[in-house]
């Protein structure tokens, strides 16, 4: 039981003649070579949610796009069937033609256009977060009235393309101020439960552990944090902290705004969060822990994440990596059973991300030359190579140590 996206499908839209991607109900990392179509897949989801922004793609004949959604054990299909888009003669001139539900399959209980959902009582408003995650300073004048869940669901669907393209980020500072001054009210006990859960888990978001915490909000309405014993305002935090906190607070704001009262709890909230380029602004140490952090804070959510980071890929569990083949316009892919936790960064870059020019790295060039000197028993050449390698490798590099042993053997022979 749960609420998560099982499959995403598109035909004759953008770069793909046909694309089908299956997801598991927890973490899904979309990876592959640069330009393989990771962000395109998220845009397909955004078009399902807001067909009014059809002009972000070019369309072929019989274009259709849909997502299969598991709604507490019942699979429904939400999307747009053939004829939904009016094609324009010029690039980026396509427009929404009419609401058309997608085709039916045997394993699907019902099909809907997104315009049908509220009438049917279906809460389907995934959160889409683009790569822009900087918290710009803004002065908050006070608490702000919050919209009703149905209004917020429509709002998130309308903002889906803007989110992918980096032009929209929820107002996390306003959310913090609202909650800080509401949680002592008797009617706000569920908000207080969520606030306590987040504040208690802030140490999990930082590589510094308990050296990071929330302190207070004073009458100037500026949230204050403690970092390594020093006070910091929200906007003074590093780009890494801002990226992580904007993600967490944006997810909490989404949970609390699109759900009815009985489904407000962070620990029990279900649904799907798309994050484009999760690794943006994050130090490698953060990239290694952020999957576990999101899992701990949001234990029931589904995440669909794009990334270029070998550290994030190494942190994924078996069954969480979805590799997108490059150079193909027809794909049918699903999570792999592979786990890359024991792979080196270079191995992941070559095999998963399809980086082809690692041989041009200075280390590889010097190492190749050192091997040639060893084959030729060129002692002076080996010595020069060792001097160069010592400047660019870790002191405990095993290959360089083996070269030094080989040099010693040649010196003894000589």
Automatic annotation (TrEMBL):
Boundaries of every AAA+ ATPase domain copy: 24-328
Gene3D superfamilies: P-loop containing nucleotide triphosphate hydrolases (3.40.50.300)
InterPro entries reported for this sequence: AAA+_ATPase (IPR003593), AAA_GajA/Old/RecF-like (IPR041685), ATPase_AAA_core (IPR003959), Bact_Antivir_Def_Nuclease (IPR051396), P-loop_NTPase (IPR027417)
One Pfam family it belongs to: AAA_15
PANTHER family: ATP/GTP PHOSPHATASE, EXCINUCLEASE ATPASE SUBUNIT
Name listed for the protein in its UniProt record: AAA+ ATPase domain-containing protein
């Amino acid at each position: 039981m749960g609420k998560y996206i099982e499959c995403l499908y598109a035909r004759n839209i953008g770069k793909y003649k046909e694309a089908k991607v299956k997801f598991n109900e927890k973490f899904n990392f979309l990876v592959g070579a640069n330009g393989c179509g990771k962000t395109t897949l998220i845009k397909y989801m955004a078009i399902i949610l807001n067909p009014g922004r059809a002009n972000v793609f070019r369309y072929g004949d019989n274009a259709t796009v849909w997502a299969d959604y598991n709604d507490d054990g019942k699979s429904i299909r939400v999307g747009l069937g053939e004829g939904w888009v009016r094609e324009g003669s010029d690039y980026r001139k396509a427009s929404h033609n009419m609401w058309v539900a997608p085709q039916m399959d045997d394993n699907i209980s019902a099909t809907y256009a997104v315009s049908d959902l509220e009438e049917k009582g279906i809460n389907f408003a995934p959160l889409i977060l683009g790569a822009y995650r900087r918290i710009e300073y803004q002065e908050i004048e006070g608490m702000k009235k919050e919209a009703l869940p149905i209004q917020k669901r429509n709002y998130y669907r309308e903002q889906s393309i803007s989110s992918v393209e980096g032009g929209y980020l929820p107002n996390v500072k306003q959310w913090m101020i609202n909650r800080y001054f509401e949680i002592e009210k008797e009617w706000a006990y569920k908000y207080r439960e969520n606030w306590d859960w987040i504040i208690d888990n802030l140490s999990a978001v930082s590589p510094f552990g308990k050296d990071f915490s929330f302190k207070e909000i004073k009458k100037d309405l500026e949230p204050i944090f403690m970092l390594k014993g020093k006070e910091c305002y929200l906007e003074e935090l590093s780009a890494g902290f801002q990226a992580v906190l904007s993600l967490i607070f944006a997810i909490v704001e989404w949970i609390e705004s699109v759900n009815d009262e009985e489904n407000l709890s962070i620990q029990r909230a279900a649904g799907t969060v798309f994050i484009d380029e999760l690794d943006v602004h994050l130090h490698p140490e953060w990239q290694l822990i952020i999957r576990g952090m999101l899992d701990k804070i949001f234990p029931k959510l589904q995440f669909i994440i794009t990334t270029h980071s070998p550290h994030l890929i190494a942190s994924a569990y078996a069954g969480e990596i979805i590799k997108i083949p490059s150079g193909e316009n027809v794909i049918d892919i699903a999570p792999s059973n592979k786990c890359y936790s024991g792979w080196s960064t270079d191995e992941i870059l070559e095999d998963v991300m399809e980086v082809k020019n690692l041989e041009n790295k200075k280390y590889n060039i010097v190492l190749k030359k050192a091997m040639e000197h060893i084959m030729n028993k060129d002692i002076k050449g080996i010595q020069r190579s060792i001097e160069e390698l010592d400047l660019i490798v870790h002191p405990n590099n095993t290959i360089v140590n083996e070269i030094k042993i080989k040099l010693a053997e040649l010196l003894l022979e000589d």
